[in-house]
Specification:
4 helices, alpha+beta, seven-stranded mixed beta sheet, Aminopeptidase
Length: 155
């Protein structure tokens, strides 16, 4: 399998929205700014397409706010198309993002996943990210707290 992390192509917007699960017009419009600036930092975000054999299969987001994070540190978010989940795309995305980070003077990437997301937990482990702890009740949905597991990759 041939995976590549690269800026989005303009014609990939609809597919990118599908991959990210963005169904409302408002959500798609908010994403459009980052999508159109893919490969460049915009409002503390950097978006890349994850492509497998010429097909868009994922979205990789890096986040760095200079007011809340030290220089050289970013947080990663990954969305993988449902049809590609559990097939190694998440692990590859983490590895490609880490390669990009090192080449661009980042010494640390952080990421997290819901404790119930077994596939992403495995991806972090396979990509040799270090488990750093549990963030209790990080997100609330309908008044129910969701714990997240924190991972990092450092030089």
């Amino acid at each position: 399998m041939n995976f590549v992390m690269r800026p989005y192509k303009t014609e990939e917007f609809e597919r990118a929205c599908q991959v990210r699960g963005l169904v409302t017009v408002d959500a798609q419009e908010r994403f459009k700014i980052g999508f159109l600036g893919s490969g460049k930092w915009i409002n503390d975000y950097l978006h890349f397409a994850l492509v497998k054999n010429e097909l868009l299969v994922g979205d990789i987001q890096l986040r760095h706010c200079d007011r809340t994070m030290p220089e050289g540190v970013a947080h990663i978010g990954i969305d993988i198309a449902q049809t590609e989940q559990g097939k190694g795309a998440g692990t590859i995305a983490l590895e490609l993002a880490w390669q990009w980070a090192q080449a661009n003077n980042f010494h640390r990437l952080e990421g997290s996943t819901d404790v119930k997301n077994i596939a992403m937990r495995r991806a972090f482990e396979k990509a040799s990210w270090i488990f750093e702890g549990t963030m209790k009740n990080l997100f609330l949905e309908d008044g129910v707290g969701h714990d997240y597991l924190s991972f990092a990759k450092t030089i």
